[in-house]
Amino acid sequence: MLALAALHWLAPLVLNPYYATILARIGIAIIAAVSLQLVNGVTGQFSIGHAGFMGLGAYASAAFSVYLGAALLDSLGASGLVRFLYFPLPLVCGGLVAAAAGLVVAVPTLRLRGDYLAIATLGAGEIIRIAILNVDAVGGARGFSLASASHTAVDLRFESLAGVYAVAAVSVAAIARLVYSGGGLAFRAVREDEIAAESLGVPTTRVKVEAFLVSSFFAGVAGALFAHTEGYIHTNSFGFVRSFELVAFVVLGGLGSLSGAIIAAAVLTAAPELLRGLGEWRMVLYSVLLIATMILRPQGLLGQRELLGLWKSHGAARS
Amino acid sequence: MRRAVRAAVCVVSFAFVALACGGGERADAIVVGHVASMTGDTATFGRSADAGIRMAVEELNAAGGVLGKKLEVVTEDDRSLTEEARTAAQKLIQRDHIVALLGEVASSRSLAAAPEAQRAKVPMISPGSTNPKVTAVGDYIFRACFIDPFQGAVMARFAADELKAKRFAILFDFKQDYSVGLAEFFRDTVKKMGGEIVADERYTSGDIEFRAQLTTIRAATPDAIFVPGYYTELGLIAKQARELGITVPLLGGDGWDSEKTLEIGGSAVEGYFFSTHYAADSDNPRVQEFVKRFTERYGATPDAMAALGYDTAGILADSLKRAGSTEGAKLRDAVAGTANFDGVTGKISIDGNRNARKDAVVLKIEGGKFRYYRTVSAE
Amino acid sequence: MENLLQQLLNGVTWGSIYALIALGYTMVYGVLRLINFAHGEVYMMGAMTGYYAARWLGVAGTPSVAGLVGVLIASMIVCGLLGALIERVAYRPLRGAGRLAPLITAIGVSLLLQNAGQLVFGADPKFFPPLLESHEVLRAGEVAISNIQLTVLVTAVLLMGALEYIVQRTRFGRAMRAVSYDAPAAALMGVPVDRVITGTFVLGSMLAAAAGILVGLANPKIDPLMGLMPGLKAFVAAVLGGIGSVPGAMAGGLLLGVIETLVTGYLSSTYRDAIAFVILVLILLYRPTGLFGAPQTEKV
What we know:
The complex is a heterotrimer of chains A (319), B (379) and C (300).
Chain A: H1 2-14, H2 17-42, H3 50-76, H4 80-86, H5 88-109, H6 114-133, E1 144-145, H7 161-179, H8 185-192, H9 194-199, H10 204-230, E2 232-233, H11 240-253, H12 258-274, H13 282-296
Antiparallel strand pairs in A: 1-2
Helix pairs in contact in A: 1-7, 2-7, 2-10, 2-11, 2-12, 3-5, 3-6, 3-10, 5-10, 7-10, 11-12
Chain B: H1 2-20, E1 29-36, H2 43-62, E2 70-77, H3 82-95, E3 100-102, H4 107-120, E4 124-126, H5 133-136, E5 141-143, H6 148-162, E6 167-173, H7 177-192, E7 196-203, H8 211-219, E8 224-226, H9 231-243, E9 250-252, H10 259-265, E10 273-276, H11 285-298, H12 304-323, H13 328-336, E11 341-343, E12 346-350, E13 356-357, E14 360-366, E15 369-376
Parallel strand pairs in B: 1-2, 1-3, 3-4, 4-5, 6-7, 6-8, 8-9, 9-10
Antiparallel strand pairs in B: 10-14, 11-12, 12-13, 14-15
Helix pairs in contact in B: 2-12, 3-4, 6-7, 9-10, 12-13
Chain C: H1 2-32, H2 39-57, H3 65-91, H4 100-121, E1 126-127, E2 136-140, E3 143-146, H5 147-169, H6 171-181, H7 183-188, H8 193-218, E4 221-222, H9 228-241, H10 246-267, H11 272-286
């Protein structure tokens, strides 16, 4: 708590906006990566359309803020306390819309296995993106600006870096709690051997849907945070390139490891910025790095283990 | 486990060190930033603009520079993504300490980057963003090109006056904000003039197959078809329209302005009209010089984006000279006061809304070339 | 009615392109159970190679059938080698590493080819030289078919026929089918599995290259990012027909092309790209093994 408070007041003094933006992006990437890890790594269901849920969360929360939030903040006055109380609202809104979409996608597709599920989720992600692109109320090809036309004085942006990391901490803690609780063993049971789990009485379909729901909720929260820190969103940011980036975080960190996903998300989000000096070769190098890592160390950074052995009950069921 | 932790710590610290190094102010050069899509799906436009800017800067430096110093352009790639445009702008402002920002070509990315420039009080000039909202972000944001309301109206009126068209079909690129914006204002103008939109079809940039939409348009028997997209798709649209037996003229905006339209479209684009900034066959020696030098330098004829990039850099240099300093507020005022700047894309004045006031020209494609047809003044 | 016929014609022409690309996906999936995401980029390389080959062979200015054939062969050879190279460098090292690692690597290769392509070839679109003079061949009222469309159809059919022959009537084809059915057993029977796999990649890549040339012929604008969407759609076509099944890929491709064109023409052009994915989701829900695939039981 202390760390966050310090961050909140020190950050604007010490960091220039460029670094602040990168750190905010890292925080958001962490939430998205950990949410995907729940489905891909812990429950073993390959979802590669995750950016669609992020996009839904971003657009839903932005629409909420622009069409409802601005009026609300205008009438209540924009003091620090009011803003502090307001900001969870668009985030939760984004999360819920994304979760609803997650449910719609999950129920039919979780009947599929392996590669088929992967492609179905890829398709779902694309359908979501194209659908958003066609909604004029949120801008379409012209993007959506987080600014209300009627309440122009209200600043809907989320400027606090501490806030971003607070949300990140809460999200990671929530997911970790879920994964490493007694009930969380069910997720890993489904990953290890779905048929055996089913025959032992684990309600596999329900477990999978649950994983998907929680995962898409937090993806939506990440998207909502993205919208509110950027101030301007466009569907191009939520296409399959983004989905693949998230999958890369999860795989390179180690499928099944939450801390691995966090590290990978942090490093790989900062990487394109570091590689800026290389100009046009940046993206080429990035893809080569990805391929090389997959060939030389396919289990990723941490495999299925967690950093610091913080959580004792990982892997197969104990006692 | 320990090894993994140590490795992670090493990577992260290396990251921060690398991030912290580099950048910085230079006493001997004026650093200008350019945010552009050098990779990603609109890379062709970002690179064109960059080529135009760089050539302008080379020429200026060869002539002695500006305010006694050389101009240096730092280009940052935004990968055709809006959030990257914002970070690129931030990096240029914070680490390279630029005195001005040029870019972006796409309105959506300009809208993402502009707030940063405004906040840091760094003047920004966009070479090609046409959405009116861009300059509304703040008084440090300018543009060197038309805005959609103007250009959308130009072709609608032209078609009604010159071609006596009453029934219009529209085929626009719904993935590009330029196209969506232009189509919208075209539609508005047509309605205001009492005309009729008989077909309203869409495609996505990157598409190469338009026969389905064209067949539908053909069935609606329009007098003219407005295609406010980029030359990247236009050539094929024209070819396929001809194949389907469509004989009514196609009309377009400055997105058509490139040699590729003629190259890919070939005989299919004969007789079509489009509005743009300059006529390459204009007897204006400045234009001829520019085209010749650009072709020599890069081995390709300049498209509209390159010409706009060239002029944007020119306007900036001119403003620096008039301001007599690189200080933000003075430079901003100088840019705002740009009047009758003699660019290759026309005589440019910056108006009260920080948009460029310049005449548009309508070109006709005749004999495999763009031919000047008419001027539409900026009223 | 004429409108419908025209749309159908357009749909079948595109469908045969999707079919050619889909064949590569389906064959590789058959022998390796891998979705080769980089396949769309091989198609793009086919078109690009054709562009440069046309200049190199000197046929860019003069349309002729011989020129077309020359470019086709050159491109197919180059891309065949490219396919083999990708297999050898990116996929073979991951043979035993589960399903996810090769998938990620495939995505990495795809991104690499796209970005490297933009750097090497330039990001701007290029005009594919007209290797054949375009003119109408047949006209029935409003419906027209050009010689180019006919060429695309005929070439696609010939290539598919050739592939079918190879798969059904040659030793290599038999080896391929054996590896698809049961790779360890095939290895035990003396089938050189590695070489068969490489050969499969080569065949698939050659077909994708041909598709690239044909597209360059019919819709002469090419650029380094042109492979992304057709690649994904061709994959959907392969799944539609039944992934792993050669006739399935052909049928799936044609069907997808027709459905896409009809929906774009009659319903809305907005959702052209989304249609393929909607079909994908539907087929995976109601008949995951596709039209021609055999239902697979999962062994415990």
